[in-house]
Each structure stands twice: as structure tokens, then as C-alpha cells.
């Protein structure tokens, strides 16, 4: 698995275009500005418009009371500074990939983007 880092301050459309072009398996977003309630749903909407179905994982300074809203918007997992067990986090993200692979196989599409 490769990691593609696109930098900071990208628009939702730029993130979606990059995810589509790179054929990503999971999308990780870090937000420290407090704008997660507005930006994360906008990113997910842009991803879906591009046909990107990869799970979205969010990290940053996110109050506990905002987690449910983000998950309703389509976020698969939220991590904050209190989540410091990197082994657990990696295991959970791999679990998201396994779930996505299973769903892709059930739907009869190739996971790697090839037909």
C-alpha cells in the first residue's frame, strides 16, 4: 500500500480529484482548525460526486460531541489526540480495507480498479 500526501489547504474538489486519479483505498484527513463540521461533509460529497467510495478516516482536534455528526456524514472513523495506540489505529484501518474489499467482491467489481 502506498501513501499519497497532497499537502495542506486543498479544496474538497481537489481532494476528490486526487483520490479518483490515484485510485485510493482509504482517505485520511487531518483537521486542526475546527472547521471539520463544514469541511468533512463537503469532502465526502465531492468524493461521492466523483464516484470515490473509499472509506474516509478523520483525525485532529475534534470534540466528542461532533463525532456522531461526522459519522452520519459518512466518516468511517475519527481519531483525536487521545487515540495514541498506533497499533490499534492501523488494525482498525486495515479492517476498513477488508470490509471494502469484501463489499467490492460481493458487488462483482475489481478492488484494484481493473476490470
* Distance, first to last CA: 20 Å
Secondary-structure class: alpha/beta
By CATH, the topology of the domain at 12-83 is Rossmann fold
**CATH homology group of the domain at 12-83:** Cobalamin-binding domain
Net shape: globular
Average residue-wise pLDDT? 85
Give a short overview.
With 115 residues, this protein is of the alpha/beta class. It has helices spanning 12-22, 36-49, 64-73, 86-106, and strands at residues 27-31, 56-60, 75-79.
Which features would summarize this protein structure in a list?
115 residues; alpha/beta; Rossmann fold; three-stranded parallel sheet; 13% strand; disordered C terminus
Explained architecture:
By secondary structure, this protein is an alpha/beta fold. The chain has a domain at 12-83: Cobalamin-binding domain (Rossmann fold), CATH 3.40.50.280. Helices cover 49% and strands 13% of the residues. It contains four helices and three strands. The chain has helices at residues 12-22, 36-49, 64-73, 86-106; strands spanning 27-31, 56-60, 75-79. Strands 1-2-3 form a three-stranded parallel beta sheet, with helices on both faces. Helix 1 (12-22) packs across helix 2 and helix 2 runs parallel beside helix 3 (64-73). The radius of gyration is 14 Å and the shape is globular. The two termini are 20 Å apart. The model is unreliable at 102-115 (pLDDT under 50).
